[in-house]
Amino acid sequence: MALLYLIPTWPTDIWTGAMRRQAPDLDIRLWPDNMGRLEDITYAVAWLPPANVLKSLPNLKVIFSLGAGVDAILKDPTLPDGVPIARVNEPDLTMRMSEYVVLHVLMHHRQQRRLDENQRNKVWDSFPTHAAPALTVGIMGLGVMGTDSARKLAMMGFKVVGWSRSPKTIPGVECFAGAPEFDSFLKRTDILVCLLPHTPETTGIINGDVISRLSRRGPFGAPIFINAGRGKHQVESDILAALDSGALHAATLDVFETEPLAKDSPLWSHPKVTITPHVAADSDPDTITAYVLGQIRRHQKGLPVENLIDRQRGY
Ligand code: NDP
Ligand code: OXD
User: Fold this and answer.
1) I need a labelling partner for 49 at 20 to 30 A (CA). Which of 42, 65, 121, 294 fits?
2) CA atoms of 164 and 162, how far apart (whole Å)
3) Tens of pLDDT along 298-315?
4) 108 catalytic, yes or no?
5) Residue 34: half-sphere exposure toward Cβ, Cα within 13 Å
C-alpha cells in the first residue's frame, strides 16, 4: 500500500511533511522522481494531474482531491475509469469560506470601501445607511459551502435565497432549484454569491444576460456580485461592461478565468472591484491531511470513503 502525491502546482513538501508527521509508517511516493513500483500505489492525492500518470497505476483504489472542487482532477483526459474520486468536505474549509462570504457581503452592505476612501481623503461623511434585512443575498450552489454561508447570513438578519440543481429545505432560506426556478431566484437577488462547482453546465453562467435579470430594487439600485466558486463561472468581459454601465454596482472576485490574474487585466484597478487571489477558503495542510488520512483509514477497514463525486455530474 503506497500513497502518491501528484500535485505539480502545489508546494509538495508542505503536504508530504504533514502526512509524514501524521502517519510516519505510510509509504509516500512523489511524482515524478520517486514513484517506485507503480503496482504498490493504491491511493493518490492529486491536483491538476498530468495526463497518463493516474492511468499508469494498475492498483489505484481512490483518488483524493486536495480541495472541495474536483474540476482540476476531471481535466485529466486520461483519468482511469472506475476509480472513485473523493473531494474535501471538512469543517475548517467550510468555516473559512463562510468567513469570506460574510466578510464581503458585510463590506459591500456597510460600504466599507467608501469609508476607507473617505479616511484616506480625511473626509467626515456620515452618509445614511440601512440594516441587513434591506438586502437579499442570493447564493448559487447550496452544497456544503453554500448552505453554511446561507445559514450564517440569515442569522445576521439578511434575507437569503439560494439556488441549486435539486430542491432543498434550509430554515430561513428561500430555496429555488434548476433552470425553471433560476429566474425567480435572480429577480430576488441584490447580492449574488457564486459557490457552484465548475462543470460544463456552470461554465460562463455569470454573464451579461444573468446580470441583467438580477434585482434592482435593493438600496444600491444595482446588484453586487461575489465569486468564490471558480473563475470559469464568470465572463469577465461581461462583468467589466456591467460595472462600467452601472448594471452592476460592485464585485468581489476571488477566482478568475485565468489564474493568476494577468497583470494587465483591467479588473486589478477597477474602482468597483475587490480582488483576492483564490484564498476564500485556504486548504490548511494539517487539517486536510488529517481528513485524507481518515478517509484512507476508513478504506483500509472496509468502510466506504466519504464525499465521492459523481463523474457524470462533474462534482
Ligand atoms: P458541493 O458539491 O457540496 O455543492 C455544490 C452545489 O452546487 C450543490 O448545491 C449543487 O446542487 C449545486 N450545483 C451544481 N451544479 C449546478 C447546476 N448546474 N445548477 C444549479 N446548482 C448546481 O460543493 P461545495 O459547496 O463543497 O463547494 C462548492 C465549490 O466552491 C467548489 O466546487 C469549488 O469550486 C469552490 N471552492 C472555492 C474555494 C476558494 O477558495 N475560492 C475553496 C473551496 C471551494 P445539488 O445540491 O442539487 O447537487
Ligand atoms: C477548493 C479550492 O476547491 O481551494 O477547495 O479552490
Assistant:
1) 294
2) 7
3) 999 999 999 999 999 999
4) no
5) 10
